Amino acid sequence: MKNLILTISILGLSLTNISAQDIHQNEVPSVILNNFQKSFPKAADIDWEIKGNLYEVEFETGLLGDDHKVLYSRDGKLVRHEEEISKSNLPKSVVTSINKSFSGYRIDDVKKITEGRKVIYNVELKNRSQEWKVVFDAQGRILQKRED
């Protein structure tokens, strides 16, 4: 059931990409802009889009330019936050699951995705001959995996 909900969420967000429209920051409602600036005061390289009924902002933070993507509802509530993190910031439960289920694979690309109180980790795993994209919950359970 969780996989179905996750798949539907991902599909729904990907379908909104079809109707995405770039906008200038001065076109973003002030309630959204204020919440964004309060939550991410050090954001740089900021790009805004409207996707359906949501406002999406992509930006970077930190010395290494960690990528972020945040979706806001029209009333200024943060709906989803996707951020690039280092593999050292993965929860031990996720690392344990990777070591058990993907022995011999290296962790290549990690994203932490937060929707409300739910946190998932999207991890790219590679070895010499295969590449997997795997979604884990915070407890290290595999929610979805696909060969890339």
UniProtKB/TrEMBL annotation:
Q: Tell me the ranges covered by the Putative beta-lactamase-inhibitor-like PepSY-like domain, including all copies.
A: 20-79, 80-143
Signal peptide annotation: none
Domain of life of the native organism: Bacteria
Q: Which Pfam families match?
A: PepSY_like
The record's section on InterPro entries has:
PepSY-like
**Name by which UniProt lists this protein:** Putative beta-lactamase-inhibitor-like PepSY-like domain-containing protein
| The organism's taxonomic lineage, starting at the top | Bacteria, Pseudomonadati, Bacteroidota, Flavobacteriia, Flavobacteriales
